[in-house]
Amino acid sequence: MSDEPEDVTLYIGGVFASNEPAIVRTTLGSCIAVCLFDPMTAVGGMNHYMLPDSSAAVGEPGRYGVHAMELLIGAIQRAGGSRGRLIAKVFGGGHVIDTREHDESVPSRNIAFIQKFLAEEKIHVASLDVGGYLPRNVKFETWTGKAFCKRLSKPAVKELQLEEKMARKAPLADTGGDLELFD
Q1: What is the pTM of this model?
Q2: Whether the Cβ atoms of residue 103 and residue 139 lie closer than 8 Å to each other
Q3: For the chain, which domains are there?
Q4: Cα–Cα distance list, 75 to 4, 115, 132 (Å)
Q5: What is the pLDDT along the chain (183 residues), one digit of tens a residue?
């Protein structure tokens, strides 16, 4: 068995939590990554969501804020963490692509969603690095709760713009059956 922590890369819709040492990495543009940590049990995790919500409840739920948060909190609880002790570190929401929807940008909606969600859930926000015009690389240590964020240079914007546009146009995942929504 190696003494090195597991190295995990998250992409849009990804969620990871562990009670074992792991380094979780992601690159963000207009998306948000939330790192949650329970300091009593040393359980931590991260998600990476693209939009605050969806008008169609199909596809990968981790791509949407409320689902991504519940998936992350659930994974932390399964690993031994407690919802009541969580500390959050939030990153992303950069204005790196033209994301205007209904007179409000996706990054702004993502930021507003996560701030409201964490406040309503009474999850303490230890650090917040959101907005601006550059993408970010985020690295999170699940066993210490330490998060590191590096703003990327302008040339990295083009690559991230393409990745986010492709993700928005990607076909939704097969849900394994028909789904009928009702009120």
Answers
A1: 0.81
A2: no
A3: 6-166 (3.30.1330.200)
A4: 22, 21, 30
A5: 567 899 999 999 999 999 999 999 999 989 999 999 999 999 999 999 988 876 555 567 678 888 999 999 999 999 999 999 999 999 999 988 754 544 468 899 999 999 999 999 999 999 999 999 888 999 999 999 999 999 987 666 666 556 665 555 554 443 333 333 333
